[in-house]
Amino acid sequence: MISSPSVVVLLYLVTIVCFVLALRFLSSPKHARKGNWVGGAGMLVAIGTTLALEGIGNWGLIAGGIAIGSVAGVVGARTVRMTAMPQMVAIFNGVGGGAAALIALSEWHEIVEPAAEETTSIVVSALIGSISFAGSVVAFAKLQELVSGRPIVFPGQNVVNMLVLLAAVALGVAAIAGAHEQWVLWAIVGLALLFGVLFVLPIGGADMPVVISLLNALTGLAASATGFVLDSTVLIVSGMLVGAAGTLLTLLMAKAMNRSVANVLFGAFGQVQAGTGAARGDDGRTVRATSPEDVAVQLTFARKVIVAPGYGMAVAQAQHDVRQLADLLEEKGVDVKYAIHPVAGRMPGHMNVLLAEANVPYTQLAEMDQINPEFPQADVVLVIGANDVTNPAARSDPASPIYGMPILDVDKAASIVVMKRSMNPGFAGIDNELYLDPKTTMLFGDAKDSVLKLIAAVKAV
Amino acid sequence: MDVLLAIELTILVLAAFLGFEVISKVPAMLHTPLMSGANFIHGIVIVGAILVLGKADDTFTRVVGLLALALATANVVGGWFVTDRMLGMFKRRPEPPRKDDA
């Protein structure tokens, strides 16, 4: 039993230091895993300290809650496939927000005569926590394809969303001003949940990296607000660290798409656009299909090959086969590199994790700014399931919705092979100029099938 | 506004700056583990959940507290294991096997 309040605060300081170190260790893949252990130790200190506080009881329930949560957490984390990682990150994010909202509800229930300051923390924690919970659940459902990944829109959507949020905030102000009925906070939670659902629904799959980052930031802020409710420094600081991480990632992702965060959130980007693309095929250029055998010859006699992966590789779970193909080429003396666009996939760093899972050494993964000057020297670029991040219209066509977005300059290479399931437009719903480039050939089919055929063909060359 | 709240706000603002400083050094390659590690860290709400449930003295608070603790624990445990699994995959190029091994 720890009875001295200052000892408690100091033990929580140990936790804070561990968390900051864990984040610092993430600056290099060499030490990052060690950092996670440091963070884990910090968390254990915090949990142990809290359990040892005076006046803690209900031990049976505490053990039960921890047991349920641990089983769910371990099973989820261990069994999920690496390709389902974005969903997993979304759902673990959501449960944190949900916990913050529940803590706020129980504090609201307990408090008899709340001061305005206390009510403010409770309202903020309930509001942000609920938005983050509902938003994360919808993001999970979209990524898991339980609901359509395309934007779901209805007329007047932004107005309705704003009204729902305003109503929640208005109730919050009323609560702070003294409306201390139980239903007030429940209504705030209800409206916030509704807003969480409404604000993620219209966001398309390609914009998911921004949304997941934002939800991450929100859960952090909710945890921080909970810290104000409970006067707990460890919650305030840890929550804010996450808030800062999420905010920074949100801004980075939006920048990588050359769009403002507001545009991502309220633009309903990625509805299939009729007209704009269809007209462009009229200038006589056509798409050229190729065969695995032809591509195999191209690859084997190349000096430098760059692989540009995208979400299609994740969907087809082709990362292991891609690595095998690259190994095979390297044995034949071909220089192989991977070009990673910051928003390729469905969450920040998605492609890096997938390729790391396939044992691609991280030294072979190149960021966009690093690899773009190398494309002119590449003999072949293999575009595997990436679309919008390779679309030259982003550089050349001011009318294109993605104009101004930094892209991988794959079209500067000597030749480009695009692996694609069909000629359907990408998630942004726009046609890709690259496919009409005379240097480009298309290898249609499932990415995994195509890569397996390529491996066989390369072996036969 | 009482002094405690003012001090807490001070800490909050400093934590924001610290967070930006530390996180801006994380390379893009590790952005997914960063998200998942940050996920793990906001699992710290488990402290709040234990406080609520540990001091609960009516059925409502017990139910809500139990739910909050289960969610927060899933957040902590799941976040940590996912991060560990991911980071375990990031490897340098393996040393070429020595000839005398064969």
Explain the overall architecture.
The complex is a heterodimer of chains A (461) and B (102). By secondary structure, chain A is of the alpha/beta class. Chain A contains 17 helices and six strands. In chain A, 58% of the residues lie in helices and 7% in strands. Chain B has 102 residues and is mainly α. Chain B has a domain at 31-88. Chain B contains four helices and no strands. The longest helix of chain B is centred in the last third of the chain and has 31 residues, at 59-89. The radius of gyration of chain B is 21 Å and the shape is flat. The model of chain B has no long low-confidence stretch (mean pLDDT 90). Chains A and B meet through α1, α2, α3, α4 and α8 of A and α1, α2, α3 and α4 of B.
Shape of chain B: flat
Strand content of chain A: 5-15%
- Encode the helix/strand succession of chain B as letters: HHHH
Biggest sheet layout of chain A: 6 strands, parallel
Number of helices of chain A: 17
- Distance from N terminus to C terminus of chain B (CA atoms, Å) equals 74 Å
Q: Would you list the SSEs of chain A in sequence order as H and E?
A: HHHHHHHHHHHEHHEHEHEHEEH
Give a count of the beta strands of chain A, DSSP E runs of length 2 or more: 6
Assembly status: heterodimer
* Alpha-carbon Rg of chain A, integer: 25 Å
Mean pLDDT of chain B: 90
Structural class of chain B: mainly alpha
* Largest sheet, strands/sense/barrel of chain B: none
Could you report the average pLDDT of chain A, rounded to the nearest whole number?
90
In helices, the fraction of residues of chain B equals over 70%
- Spatial sequence of strands, sheet with the most strands of chain A: 3-2-1-4-5-6
> What percent of the residues of chain A sit in helical stretches (DSSP H or I)?
55-70%
